[in-house]
Amino acid sequence: MSLTPAELTSAVSGGIGSSPQRPDGNLKVRGEFAYASDLWHEDMIWGATLRSPHPYARIVSIDLTEALQVPGVYAVLTHQDVPGQNRYGLEHKDQPVLAEEVVRYQGEPVALVGADHPETAQRAMKRIKVEYEVLTPVVDMETAADDTPLHPGGNLVRHVPVRRGDQHAEAEVVVTGRYEVGMQDQAFLGPESGLAVPDEEGGVDLYIATQWLHVDQAQVAAALGLPLEQVRLTLSGVGGAFGGREDLSMQVHACLLALHTGKPTKMVYNREESFYGHVHRHPAVLYYEHGADHTGRLVYVKARIYLDGGAYASSTGAVVANAATLGVGPYDVDNVTVDCWGVYTNNPPCGAMRGFGAVQAGFAYESQMDKLAEALGMDPVDLRIVNAMSEGSVMPTGQVIDSAAPVAQLLKLVKDKPMPPLSTVVDLRDMPGGVSNTTHGEGVVRGVGYAVGIKNICFSEGYDDYSTARVRLQVINGEPAALAHTAAAEVGQGLVTIMQQIVRTELGVERVTILPMDTSIGNGGSTSASRQTYVTGGAVKAACAAVREKLAKLAASRDLSAVDIAGTDLTGVDLAELLGDEVIDETVEWRHRATEPIDPETGQGNAHVQYGFAAHRAVVDVDVELGLVKVVELDCAQDVGKALNPQAVLGQIQGGSAQGLGLAVMEEIQTAGGKVRNPSFTDYLIPTVLDMPPMSIDVLELADPHAPYGVRGVGEPPTISSTPAIVAAIRAATGLALTRVPVRPEHITGT
Amino acid sequence: MIPFDYRLAPDVDGAVAAATGWGGVAFLAGGTNLVDHMKLGVAAPEVLVDISRLPLDAVEELPDGGLRIGATVRNSDLAAHPAVRRDYPVLARALLSGASGQVRNLATTGGNLLQRTRCAYFQDLSTPCNKREPGTGCSAIGGYTRQHAILGASAHCVATHPSDMAVAMAALDAQVTVLGTSGRRVIPLVELHRLPGDEPHRDTVLSPSDLITAVELPPLPEGTRSLYRKVRDRASYAFALVSVAAVLRVEDGVVRDVRIALGGVAHKPWRARRAEDVLRGSPVDGSPADEEVFRRAAEAELAGAAPLAGNGFKVPLARNTVVSALRGLSREER
Amino acid sequence: MRVNVTVNGEPRQADDVWEGESLLFLLRERLGLPGSKNACEQGECGSCTVYLDNTPVCSCLVAAGQVQDREVRTVEGLADGDRLDPVQEAFVEAGAVQCGFCTPGLVVAAHDLLDRVPQPSDPEIREALAGNLCRCTGYEKILDAVRLAATRKAAPRGSGAQESGSR
Predict the structure, then answer these.
(1) C42/A680 Cβ within 8 A
(2) pLDDT tens digits, one per residue of A58-74
(3) What is the CATH code for A284-460+598-749?
(4) Which of A119, A375, B283, C2 is the most buried (most CB within 10 A)?
(5) Domain C3-77 classified CATH 3.10.20.30?
(6) Interface mutation target, options C87, C135, C141, C147, chain A, most CBs of A under 10 Å
(7) B313 touches chain C (CB under 8 A)
(8) What is the residue extent of each domain of chain C?
(9) Calpha distance B246→B244 (Å, rounded)
């Protein structure tokens, strides 16, 4: 198997708005798609990582002697072997490649082994002697800021206040609540893996499953002390990401071992190590107070939000800003007081996961809206519609929403859907508890719940967010053929399909090849924040426009200037004839419109590029006696601006909703004293096909005039509203307050 | 994983012989638990005796109406066996509610009985565990105990037995045939597994070279009903928080025979004798009045429960599950 | 030790197999068949599902030595040359493939289901696939794919069977 991923070529019709097959689909169903963990190189060795068993400890000594004596071991490395800067991080360089004096979380990398077989590496790791002085871990996010400082500068990573309107507003009806969100894991199926191949000049090629090649490249080069051009990254097959691959895992480690031994080095995490090897969704504690008048109009919202960033900052700062700026939800509120704190603790590091701060806030503000509706004696959907924001609304940051914000319409769509029939106990698989014959219908109560959410799309707060795309057009075997190249990571979402569709639409060709993604081209930005179709799609579109300009010049030079190539579609143009032997090859950097930093005192500023909205209705059956929940139906309405690939849009909504269901009723990384207690798929449960109900989905296409083709990011919004809708439905069925997710059987049966 | 010696057992006696005289020996059948534990380093046998090809894979209907199940009969085959489906629905249900299809296709009857606990500390080599390393202490006590025992635990271990199948078999008064160095013997299933006491590393009364060859189910009298109910965190493929296997025969409105076993609550499948005593001879007619009897029975059993800091919910949950199971049986139309 | 095993119809031999290796490791690292995936290696996700003597199993839980003289069929052995199996074809068409890491295991599990139950009901499909975790799709399009494959297999090729509707 070649290390370089296959070029993906399809020669079919299928521009934007249609759903052509994925160009990598056949490879994937045949088992021939090369994921990072499938890579193999002649003479390669295997790397393994020794990790700290303690959440917080001082390293007294490390003795490698016995490990180095194990036959088959090529290298055993510690922080002393890191030639460059032993610090990395997405926002703050606070995380060591390999621990120095202190370990700050259970699972922190301490040493590396390179050996001829994974088992040899494991055996050698057991012979590394690390003496620790165990320290008392900081684990409470609400008090962490005043606890033992874990980093220079203390434990506060970021505080974002948002102040809008009257800070002392009073209201007729007031509801307050405290909510908790457990630590969710991305649980992508393809474990972290990569293969580093040293070159003859002291550089390295890294084949890796990641979300962002260039930010990896910069961090790896700095740690290795190498110039960027000596660290070349190529994207291998990625088995899902959902935020969990935005930070480095073994990127530097594999390169260190490869450069140290001169041998290609492969590292593959197993599932347990994967749980230790990537950041998770921030657990949160949220205090809310909502004030409304007797008609239900929100007068004010106050919130104090704590996010547990764990041992290292990762993207905590940006997650804090999201939770703060999106903290009142998709509602018009004139008076807002929000404070959000992200802190260091000795819990597992937390960072990006689908929904990114908006998920935690969404559970709390939607729970509050239901509580407020109850206090007012109003229908919960009506209350939301009364307060729904719309185009022209002003965010708590002062930013004016300048494209569609169909919040009321989305709510009406899910509310008006026909209700699923009551179960008639024909099939136990449809009942709470499923096939285990748990429920026969006695004690089963149905509940219905609604929720709506808001998510920023693309990077925010003045970040220079762009993507680079190259498009080449030439004649191959008498037919026009295009090729597109970016560094934007395909992680499963279907960016490769979208790129082909855009090229077909813009250039009027059928045959489009997608080159492997690598760092030989400029930055494509992160596959996160629901941004790749928007930004890399925009870059590919712009590169196609540049190609068309060249075509126009070519036409002019050939006296075909009557053809307005730059302005019209190309269906009537014989591209093969026009191009002849010419090769047009254009590379473009494309940016969305700029955002601004927010004011550190007031949170005011045009922080976000675009907002996405989704609404859910959940229908649940709850066995109140046994604490079992069956989500009977989970319906969704979402505005996607323009569905470039309708099938992929549905796939994102279904998958995102499923992850929201997981957070609602089962998913949580359990920690005790900073230690993870369930690092396996037996103990960390994600929904199976028996847990996920059918979905009825309405997709709105209200074009955003500022975005390419009018697209609006799709991936994250459904993850936000799914969770609170399901919990609202369980509340409706049981009458319980349920202020924490995930909701478990004991929360329903009581103790 | 520690290097080990792999031996394919030539026949049943040869398997026992091959396993005799070694400190660290294990029989390998389906591998679903053992191979996993060897990868984790939780199990490190010196010798692995592969018994998967021994002729112990038959299900035989016995002349008295009972059933003999070979030790290497796959869980999926046993669940699908017509006699099991017809006569022992509690067992079929229990089997089908365990693991997944791909795992049931590997897992065997004997191996399922000998599954080791899913206690997170048992699986985590970096923490003390009396079951994994005798004398090191129990990390679960005072730790994360949501999954742990509420009945029969000791100061040395609070782990639970993970099997569903064994719970059903406990309620069916199954008998386990074991071949050891001194010959063949039969052990009632309810006596196969131990409570932890001060030797939690011993899950069962077997010695390392004892080979389970079969499980026999006695016949159930005409009119006996049975079912299995399991409460877990997800609709499939998850261990029980609490499960109940119940066997009930009501004649003329009076409970003539009742056998109840609980899973997920103790170091072994927990036979609920106290609940059975309350129920036996009680009037039951499928009416709402039965609820009070069922509840009293469950509470009698759970009066001895000693929940830990993180699993107090299991007591009312176990009560509710027992009541629900009995209600289901008493109302079932057949 | 040496292991002789028939894989996808071909007799194969692997030398120097370490006794503790799994069938999954044998396939992926020694026999050049990385299609079966290593998502959990603990029998918890179904990504490594292969046929062992015509029964789908988690290959990560089978010790390599146990497959001596037995038959294994992996996802790589389902297509007929360039022609995809109807299950594979349906997975691509229905949009059941996103990251694809769960796909090989799901394709084998669905293939087995349709061999046993040619026209499964929705609950039967769900029950049969309950041992395969997918994190991308929310399973809806996987169900569509299995329904589509069942329809295709029932109708002879070229009879114009249409894709079953997506809810």
Answers:
(1) yes
(2) 999 999 999 999 999 99
(3) 3.30.365.10
(4) A119
(5) yes
(6) C135
(7) no
(8) 3-77, 86-154
(9) 6
> For the purposes of burial, counting CB atoms within 10 Å of the CB of A710, is it exposed (0-12), middle (13-18) or buried (19 or more)?
middle
Conformation bin of residue B104: beta by default, left when phi > 0, alpha when psi is -120 to 50 = alpha
B1·A690 Cβ contact <8 A? no
Cα distances (Å, whole numbers) of residue C99 to A50, A495, A526, B260: 29, 11, 17, 46
> For an interface test with C, which of B33, B54, B102 has the most C Cβ atoms less than 10 Å from its Cβ?
B102
Contact assignment for B229 to A627 by CB distance below 8 Å: no
Q: Does the beta-carbon distance from A625 to B235 stay under 8 Å?
A: no
The angle that helices A380-387 and A358-376 make with each other, rounded to 10 degrees, is 110
Phi, psi of B62 (to 5 degrees): -90, 155
Task: Phi first, then psi: give them for residue A397, nearest 5 degrees.
Answer: -85, -5
B chain contacts of residue A748, beta-carbon cutoff 8 Å: none
What CATH number belongs to C86-154? 1.10.150.120
Mean pLDDT along residues A304-309: 98
**C86-154 shares the fold of C3-77:** no
Per the CB < 8 Å rule, is B36 touching C42? Answer: yes
pLDDT tens for A625-674 read: 999 999 999 999 999 999 999 999 999 999 999 999 999 999 999 999 99
CATH class label, A5-33+466-591 = alpha beta
Q: Which residues of C touch A493 (CB under 8 A)?
A: 98, 136
Q: Are B129 and B158 in contact (CB under 8 A)?
A: no
Share of chain A above pLDDT 70, in %: 95
CATH fold of B225-333 reads Enolase-like; domain 1 (3.30.390)
Q: Does A686 touch chain C (CB under 8 A)?
A: yes
* Cβ contact A685:B233 at 8 Å: yes
Closest CA to C1 of A116, A70, B7: B7
Q: How far apart are CA A737 and CA A727, in angstroms?
A: 10
Asked whether residue C159 carries a pLDDT value surpassing 60, the answer given is: no
B144 touches chain A (CB under 8 A): yes
ipTM of the complex: 0.96
Question: Above 50 in pLDDT, residue A219?
Answer: yes
Per domain, the residue ranges of chain A are 5-33+466-591, 37-135+191-238+245-277, 284-460+598-749
In angstroms, what separates the C-alpha of C103 from chain A's closest C-alpha?
Answer: 6
Quickly count: other Cβ atoms within 10 Å of residue A176's Cβ. 12
Architecture of domain A37-135+191-238+245-277: Alpha-Beta Complex (3.90)
Backbone angles phi, psi at B20, to 5 degrees: -85, 140
Closest CB to A680: pick one of C44, C102, C123: C44
Task: Average the pLDDT over A334-344 and give the result.
Answer: 98
B122 touches chain A (CB under 8 A): no
| Whether the domain at A5-33+466-591 and the domain at A37-135+191-238+245-277 fall into the same CATH topology | no
Q: Contacts of residue B36 in chain C, CB cutoff 8 Å?
A: 42-43, 61
Write the CA distances from A98 to A78, A581, B167, integer angstroms.
6, 53, 47
Of C44, C99, C104, the CB nearest to A240: C99
Contact A597, A399 (CB under 8 A): no
pLDDT recorded at residue B1: 62
**Cross-chain Cβ contact A628/B93 below 8 Å:** no
Strand partners, B250: B255
Give A38's contacts in chain C (Cβ within 8 Å). Answer: 28, 34
Q: What's the CA gap between B13 and B190, in Å, rounded? A: 25
CB B293 within 8 A of CB B278: yes
| CA dihedral for A140, A144, A149, A152, sign (positive or negative) | positive
Does C163 score more than 50 pLDDT?
no
